[in-house]
């Protein structure tokens, strides 16, 4: 115990120098990006791949994403204009295949990791031991398989781009470049509107700023909100969310999804492109109470007089509340909000390691991160391989779904398209065990039966 406590900065530097970890602490940003890109190798196993799920809506089916001309024609009506601009630019340049777009998103993910590294190291790392923790934490951030939906799904780009702009804005604010931070924050809102939920974080970061810069922050955010509200598509989406849905039941389910989603950090084998877990349906369900307790705990952390704790809590709340609170949505549990929250969770880990008591507990986070390091690349590779095959990823989701028959229906649709009627029928019979009265399921069963009759008559 005394030996561990006696490991000061100089001794850690002596221990780590043979492994050249010390030389990675403050490299040139380009070299750092190349290092993190090399660590992203498991994600490249998703190539060659195909478009999946929401990709068919955005960018493939979206009018503003088909080229620069289409983008500017739709500029007054489309949502998330900055993200749509990237899609349309790719389409204009002929870079609109799933493989190229997926590769570009992996590059952006590596860039986000550089920003995350710089932020956490600036705020938390005051010794070589903590620098080692930061490197380990960034490796987990890069390779955790929960990132797959944000990095590999082309429709996940709004979250990916918003995250990068938010991280850049936070780093600029920490370096007291408040005007640049403000512009980046506005850009994040234009990439994905839920970035406005990070406003409390930037209000805190802008405390040292000049008075006119603080007022400019509020004014420009209000202007961005007015522009969003003036866009008819946002009003249509709001009406779609609240019309015909039980707001109280949706809120209970979405809050109860918080502990389930956070548990995916430790159970990556439960990740799915389309979740179907049992969630709470009443206020006294343990899952709902656990989700509410997590929100309250994060809110209490905002009162802790430590910048890293407040910032991490703000980041997690900003990531989760837009989708896991009172705004009804079709799917109570999706992975992208929890992938976005991962940066805040890992920042808390670094702070705990920095402030942990002496003795073995002081080095426990390092041991746990070292234990996770060989696991996450393997898990990321396995998850990435599923994104190469549309049928494989729906089968994976189907096997994990207890309440949602959509993975079964999508899998059956693909099998029907391949002429594999017997397999499609078997999949739909499994779906009937979940919801035998679903209209889409009954329609597909009739279609399969009709096609089988046609085939038999032809023979």
Give a concise summary.
The protein is mainly α and 459 residues long. 67% of the residues lie in helices and 0% in strands.
Arithmetic mean of pLDDT: 84
- Main β-sheet, in a few words? none
Label the overall shape. Answer: globular
User: Could you give the count of β-strands?
Assistant: 0
Number of helices: 23
Rounded to an integer in angstroms, the radius of gyration calculated over CA atoms is: 24 Å
**Uncertain segments:** 1-25
Report how far apart the termini are.
Answer: 80 Å
The helix content, as a percent range, equals 55-70%
* Coarse structural class: mainly alpha
H-E order: HHHHHHHHHHHHHHHHHHHHHHH
Strand content: under 5%
Give the secondary structure arrangement, pairings included.
Blueprint lengths: L1 H4 L3 H8 L12 H11 L28 H6 L7 H13 L4 H27 L3 H16 L4 H4 L5 H18 L3 H14 L7 H7 L5 H20 L1 H11 L4 H17 L22 H16 L5 H14 L15 H20 L4 H13 L2 H12 L3 H11 L5 H12 L3 H12 L6 H20 L1
Helix pairs in contact: 3-6, 5-10, 6-7, 6-9, 7-17, 7-18, 9-10, 10-12, 11-16, 14-15, 15-16, 16-17, 17-18, 20-21, 21-22, 21-23, 22-23
Characterise the protein shown here.
The protein is mainly α and 459 residues long. The chain is 67% helix and 0% strand. It has 23 helices and no strands. It has helices at residues 2-5, 9-16, 29-39, 68-73, 81-93, 98-124, 128-143, 148-151, 157-174, 178-191, 199-205, 211-230, 232-242, 247-263, 286-301, 307-320, 336-355, 360-372, 375-386, 390-400, 406-417, 421-432, 439-458. It is globular. The chain starts with a helix and ends with a helix.
Features:
67% helix; globular; disordered N terminus
């Amino acid at each position: 115990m005394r030996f561990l406590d006696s490991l000061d900065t100089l001794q850690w530097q002596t221990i780590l120098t043979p492994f050249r970890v010390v030389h990675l602490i403050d490299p040139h940003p380009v070299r750092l990006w190349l290092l993190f890109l090399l660590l992203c190798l498991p994600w490249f196993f998703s190539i060659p791949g195909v478009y999946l799920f929401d990709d068919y809506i955005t960018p493939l089916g979206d009018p503003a994403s088909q080229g620069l001309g289409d983008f500017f024609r739709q500029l007054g009506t489309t949502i998330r204009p900055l993200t749509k601009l990237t899609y349309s630019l790719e389409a204009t340049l002929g870079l609109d295949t799933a493989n190229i777009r997926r590769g570009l998103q992996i590059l952006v993910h590596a860039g986000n990791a550089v920003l995350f590294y710089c932020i956490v190291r600036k705020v938390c790392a005051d010794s070589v031991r903590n620098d080692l923790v930061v490197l380990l934490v960034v490796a987990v951030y890069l390779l955790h398989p929960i990132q797959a939906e944000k990095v590999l799904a082309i429709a996940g780009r709004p979250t990916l781009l918003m995250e990068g702009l938010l991280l850049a804005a936070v780093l600029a604010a920490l370096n007291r470049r408040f005007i640049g931070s403000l512009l980046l924050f506005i850009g994040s809102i234009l990439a994905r509107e839920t970035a406005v939920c990070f406003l409390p974080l930037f209000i805190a970061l802008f405390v040292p700023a000049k008075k006119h810069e603080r007022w400019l922050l509020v004014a420009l955010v209000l202007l961005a909100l007015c522009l969003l509200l003036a866009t008819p598509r946002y009003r249509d989406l709001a009406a779609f969310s609240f019309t015909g849905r039980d707001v109280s039941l949706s809120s209970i389910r979405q809050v109860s999804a918080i502990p389930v989603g956070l548990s995916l950090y430790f159970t990556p084998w439960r990740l799915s492109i389309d979740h179907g877990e049992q969630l709470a349906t009443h206020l006294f369900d343990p899952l709902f109470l656990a989700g509410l307790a997590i929100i309250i705990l994060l809110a209490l952390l905002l009162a802790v007089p430590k910048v890293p704790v407040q910032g991490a809590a703000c980041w997690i709340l900003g990531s989760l509340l837009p989708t896991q609170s009172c705004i009804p949505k079709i799917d109570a549990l999706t992975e992208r909000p929890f992938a976005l929250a991962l940066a805040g969770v890992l920042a808390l880990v670094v702070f705990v390691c920095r402030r942990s008591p002496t003795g073995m507990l002081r080095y426990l986070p390092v041991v746990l991160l070292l234990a996770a390091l060989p696991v996450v690349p393997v898990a990321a590779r396995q998850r990435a391989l599923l994104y190469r095959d549309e049928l494989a990823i729906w089968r994976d989701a189907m096997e994990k779904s207890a309440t949602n028959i959509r993975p079964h229906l999508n899998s059956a649709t693909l099998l029907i398209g391949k002429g594999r009627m017997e397999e499609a029928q078997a999949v739909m019979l499994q779906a009937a065990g979940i919801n035998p009265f679903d209209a889409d399921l009954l329609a597909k069963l009739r279609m399969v039966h009709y096609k089988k009759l046609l085939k038999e008559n032809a023979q």
